[in-house]
């Protein structure tokens, strides 16, 4: 049994228009996606802009409703919100968002941002909570002076690391990382990626790693799926994909 199994997942958006606001068309953002992620591995999801990567991620974590298909976590069907609540899914599966500035509440101090998942899922005393937040900041290489600052007072790389600290706060089993380093300089990219690898080793985390950057994916991922227009067109190990790409779209991406 894999950690998580995605079967024939579809997310279709209705397009409404005209006088009666009728459904005139549908966007098939995700159109029958199937893959598994094993415990402890980093699974890469690659594809050009608009291919449906973020929508897949959001449907898995429950931010978008699946039109059809199933998500099975540790053998339990978590496609529906009530089933996700019954087990620790919302705590076990966390997300790092594509855009760190808009995913961190600008009016909250870093202390409250990182403590938020702890407050939702663990009942710690004020002192214990502060201790945990300080530990998390330390893990991502930020000092105690960060506690009382606001997101805009950090650099892009630092903010991305704050997003990582928040994602690992509840000791998740799986982190969905949606373009976690795309907005960063190359040198800072390496820092954040190496850091993600380190906490993976330390805590045994699995990643669904989403990117359009094949270099970064090669550095991070054991298994890779190539996505195009809502569908997976090719899957394989890192060596399969980079040394023997089969699908014409994959060859084009690599070129
Ligand atoms: N709420 C929505 N309503 C209608 N269409 C949507 C909605 N969200 C996304 N889409 C469409 O679904 C498709 C897939 O979008 P998605 O954000 O998943 O792509 P992506 O692969 O993450 O792209 P990028 O690399 O640019 O982040 C796009 O064509 C997009 O326009
Ligand atoms: Mg996206």
UniProtKB/TrEMBL annotation:
GO CC annotations on file: plasma membrane
Pfam families the UniProt entry points to: ABC_tran
Topology within the bilayer: Peripheral membrane protein
GO biological process: peptide transport; protein transport; transmembrane transport
Subcellular location: Cell membrane
Keyword entries, A-Z: ATP-binding, Nucleotide-binding, Peptide transport, Protein transport, Transport
GO MF annotations, alphabetized: ATP binding; ATP hydrolysis activity
Chain ranges of the ABC transporter domain: 6-254
Family as reported in the entry's similarity comment: Belongs to the ABC transporter superfamily.
Name used for this protein in its record: Oligopeptide ABC transporter, ATP-binding protein OppF
Organism: Lentilactobacillus parafarraginis F0439
């Amino acid at each position: 049994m894999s950690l998580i199994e995605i079967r024939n997942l579809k997310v279709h958006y209705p397009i409404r228009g005209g006088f009666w606001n009728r459904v005139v068309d549908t966007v098939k953002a995700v159109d029958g996606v199937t893959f598994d992620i094993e415990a402890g591995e980093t699974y890469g999801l690659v594809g050009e802009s608009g291919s449906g990567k973020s929508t897949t991620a959001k449907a898995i974590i429950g931010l978008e409703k699946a039109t059809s298909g199933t998500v099975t976590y540790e053998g339990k069907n978590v496609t529906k919100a009530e089933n996700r609540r019954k087990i620790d899914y919302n705590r076990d599966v966390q997300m790092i968002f594509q855009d760190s500035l808009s995913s961190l509440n600008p009016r909250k101090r870093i202390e409250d941002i990182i403590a938020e998942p702890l407050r939702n899922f663990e009942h710690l005393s004020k002192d214990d909570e502060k201790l945990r937040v300080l530990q998390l900041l330390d893990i991502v290489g930020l000092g105690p002076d960060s506690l009382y600052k606001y997101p805009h007072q950090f650099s892009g790389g630092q903010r991305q690391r704050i997003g990582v600290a928040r994602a690992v706060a509840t000791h998740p089993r799986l982190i969905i990382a949606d373009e976690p380093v795309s907005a960063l300089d190359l040198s800072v990219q390496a820092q954040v990626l190496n850091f993600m690898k380190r906490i993976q080793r330390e805590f045994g985390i699995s990643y669904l790693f989403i990117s359009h950057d094949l270099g970064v994916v090669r550095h991070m991922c054991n298994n890779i799926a190539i996505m195009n227009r809502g569908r997976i067109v090719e899957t394989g190990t890192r060596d399969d994909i980079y040394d023997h790409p089969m699908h014409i779209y994959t060859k084009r991406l690599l070129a």
